[in-house]
Structure formats: structure tokens, C-alpha cells
Amino acid sequence: MRIRATGGSATPSKADILKIREAAQAASSGKTAFAASDDTDAPYPLDVTFSNFKIAGAVKVGTTNHVSTTVTYTMTHGTDVDITADDFLTGPYIYKGSYDTPDNMLFGDYPATCTATSSTTASCKGNIDVYPADGELFNSDAGTWHGAALAIAYNGQDPTSADFDITKVGYADQGDLGTTLVQRYSKLTVNASPEPVAKGKTITVTGKLSRANWEDNQYHGYTNQPVKLQFRKYGTSTYSTLKTVYTDSYGNLKTTTTANYDGYWRFSFAGTTTTPSVNATGDFVDVQ
Length: 288
Known about the structure:
Elements (H helix, E strand, L loop, with lengths): L13 H15 L15 E2 L2 E8 L3 E3 L5 E11 L10 E10 L4 E5 L6 E4 L4 E10 L12 E11 L16 E5 L4 E6 L1 E3 L2 E3 L7 E13 L4 E4 L4 E8 L6 E7 L5 E8 L3 E7 L8 E2 L3 E3 L3
Parallel strand pairs: 1-10, 3-11
Antiparallel strand pairs: 2-4, 4-8, 5-6, 5-9, 7-8, 9-10, 9-11, 12-14, 13-14, 14-15, 14-18, 16-17, 16-19, 19-20, 19-21
């Protein structure tokens, strides 16, 4: 997470945000909506709640490229909460595992942008930013994640200052706002040969299904997965499935079929919860 304020004295880092979150949860004994506490080292509960959390599809993450996914949500707040203050921020995040003790969390680079829709509601838009090359993900993180949002009112407190007083900071945090998939980006290749080929003769179709490994930043074969062999006749726009082939222990694919018409051959993978669907680019074979 690289949350940064757009103005004011607050310039929160990931460590700053997590420190406030952990202090708030400790004060609430793990409750989602924490109540007032006598703990002097905790933020006070901010009168803010979140709803209508929508994330723009599955988060497909490769090995090196920065991935950014848009999130929209509604923020409802009390009349004593000034969402226009320079040091008020809100943002979405997603987490793997339980809300109280998540296995991992992903935030946005910057706070969300919010537009007031009434005196107590605002429509907000933010991002989830992922940097796989920075070691933010383990392979075991692939799968279902949960949506959440938070808000912080720093009220003039600077989290980088030695005089920072967390008890003067307001904090709201809400989980289980929705779900999404965080997936290991997939690649699929195909090659049909010989080219050209006589009509009615056999061709061999080979390829490989691979997916991102977030722990070594390489692509490795996705083993024992069903992949469809498909054909599109030249001059048409639709692929038809001919058979299902399984990847071997290296993710490789190999099968044979009969060539009767000019057209394009491809492999098609339907995807899993951990790995997105992918189609190989069709390989044209000239039938003579």
C-alpha cells in the first residue's frame, strides 16, 4: 500500500494506516464496528459507514507490471465529519482471509476522490494498486478476496511527527463489502503444423498454458488443466470446440486432428478461481 494524502499535514504510509487500524481493532476487541474505549492509545470512532462497494472485475496480476483496478462506493457520514478537510482521507482496500486477522491486504496509491451527494453522503471512487515485483503477493493469495473501505480524520495530527496523538484521530473501517478474485495472470500459446497441409491429412497442434508465479516473478506451466482445442473456418467469425486436452506436468499441450478446411486453430482455457481464462491467438493453416 502506498496511500498518500493529497494535501494538508498528513502523509500516511502503509505502516501509518496499519498502526491506526490495529489500534482501533485492539480497542474494539476485534469487533467490526468498534465502540468507544478507555484505551488512550487508540483513535476515536469516526461516524462513517460504507455501502454500494463495486470493484471493476477480477484483479489479474502478472509478474512485474503495476495493476490498478477501480472501486466505487458510497460513504455515509455524520454532520460533524468534515470530508472536505485537507487531512481527511478515505479509500477502498481488499483483504484475503478474515477481516480481523487478514492474511494479506491491498490498498490504493492515493486516497479516493469523493463527491458529496447530500449533507451526509458522498459518492467515492478509488483504486486498488498492485505491484507484484515488490513482493506484495504469495501464490497462495490467489483466489477470493473481500472488499473493505476506511476513513481517517487526522484533525491536524501528523503521523510522521514525534508529537502524533492517535487519540485525536478519527477512524472508521468496514469489511465484508463484497468479494472479488485476485488471479495469477495466464498465457496460452498454440502452433499447428505442418503448414500447408493436404486436405484430410493429420496435423499436430501443440502449445503451453502458463501462469504468473508471484514468488519468483516468472511464468510456469499450469499442470493437469483441461484446455479446449478449437477451430474457426476461414471466412467465419466463430470458433467450434473439437476436443478437450489436458496439460502435462510442464503445462504443455499436444494433440492431433484432421485438417479439412483453411482456418485457424487455437487452444482455449476456461480459467479457475486462481487463474483467469485465456485464448491463444489462432494459428492459420492452409489446406491444399
